[in-house]
Design a protein that fits this description.
Number of domains: 1
Order of helices and strands: HHH
Strand content: under 5%
Distance between the termini: 24 Å
Oligomer: single chain
CATH topology: Arc Repressor Mutant, subunit A
Radius of gyration: 10 Å
Length: about 70
Amino acid sequence: MAFKWTDINDIAIELEDAHPDADVVNLRFTDLWGWVKDLPGFDDDPDKSNEKILEAIQMAWLDERD
């Protein structure tokens, strides 16, 4: 499956699988950006992300943990 920046919930699930011990609350957006970019299947322009998208991914990731 190919991921785009707008696939917030799918990205959150993949991040939880890839980084189950990550401190999501205190995660730097630069680290989050890199982890998303490095996900298998990620197929979008890395420059299309922004703080709003990264924050949405972070919140979805937190929801995924609950």
